[in-house]
Amino acid sequence: MQFFGLELFPFLVLLGVSLSFLVCIGESAIELPENDTIPAVFVFGDSIVDTGNNNNLNTIFKVNYPPYGQDFMGGKPTGRFSNGKVPSDIIAEELGIKPLLPAYLDPSLQAQDLVTGVNFASGGAGYDPLTSDLASVLSLSDQLEMFREYIMKLKGIVGEERTSQILRNSLVTVVTGSNDVTNTYFGSPLRKSIYDVPSYADLMVSSASSFVQYSKGNINLISCITFKDLYGLGLRRIGVFGLPPIGCLPSQRTLKGGVTRKCVDSYNQMCQLFNKKLSNELNLISSRLPEARMIYLDIYNLPLDVIHNPEKYGFGISNIGCCGTGTIEVAFLCKCTCSNVSEYVFWDSFHLTEKAYRLLVHQILEQHMKDFICEKPFC
What is the DSSP string of 304-357? Predict the structure, then answer.
């Protein structure tokens, strides 16, 4: 499948790449050890990190219209599921790479954009392949196929040796799973009638971590996208987000939290179970693959504390979103917004505000950057 067309004119492209480095590299909010660099950022996942890949898909899971993006540069809706920047942008910004992480399917994408990283995430996707099918969005397998195409284009720009260096030293994040829980498992009978909670959590983990078969010195990667797939394509620094406290999302509190809209304990318990299984699996994979630095990134505990104690973090409202009534609206249901978005943890009933995302991303990078940089066996 051809996802993206780009004419490559070597001299002009290389000139553009050189100029882009001079313009885009800014001050890093996260300090890296001396002589260590992160040349690019790559992101796979769902609407938490999608920066516009869904814009031209035939799906309701897209937000390239107001009020989304009201606080983005120029108040422009870009397909980001928030009022402004999303975690993929903030990661690239905090590392001093570039202010925004463009969507790979953005028709205005330039050759020089590829050198410092792009975004393959698609809102509505999940670890379970059924999740993406139900939403008519790009599955993780589709995203992996786009990444393979990206590698070929990058080789045409900077050559094979430099491409290998970029992939090896870049930071990769995988952010998905929430839609599996809310839409596919609890939101429909298609999986719940077959799997109990622990076995569905196992399905999610196994979908993300396939069996690696060695044959005559070659690695054969089986199944859909996995962390080992990414490793096999040359990536080494891979951060995998766990699940947030989904039971405390405004939409889930409205749908399943009763009259008082309490957090849904059964949803949060499933998230905690999955997170434990995911963390254990990542540790196992990382121990078996040389040079791998696959890091579990916790996004459960800090968001939960922010939701329960918003004033502690400079927020005022954490049980509803800024969009509409804040209790259920998301995507095309969002017609109007609050007047004081900086007070809100949630932008709509499912996604955080840029302010809340910044708090979360900064803590993750501060806590785990050394884990991505540290060389085995000295970690």
Answer: HHHHH-GGGGT-SEEEEESBTTSSS--GGG---B-S-GGGEEESSSSSB-HHHH
Distances in Å between the Cα of 172 and the Cα atoms of 28, 79, 234, 335 are: 17, 21, 11, 34
List pLDDT tens digits, range 20-52: 433 344 455 667 766 678 999 999 999 999 999
Active site residue 47: yes
List the single range of 21-25, 78-82, 141-145, 214-218 with lowest mean pLDDT.
Answer: 214-218
Q: Which of 50, 113, 298, 348 is catalytic?
A: 348
Q: Say what the pLDDT of residue 221 is.
A: 31
Residue 360 tokens, joined: 């979360």
164 given a catalytic annotation: no
Q: Which of 46, 47, 106, 207 is catalytic?
A: 47
pTM attached to this predicted model: 0.88
The yes-or-no answer on residue 351 being catalytic is yes
DSSP 177-246: -HHIIIIIISS-HHHHTT--HHHHHHHHHHHHS--EEEETTEEEE-SSS-HHHHHHTT--EEEEE----G
One of 50, 113, 180, 351 is an active-site residue; which one? 351
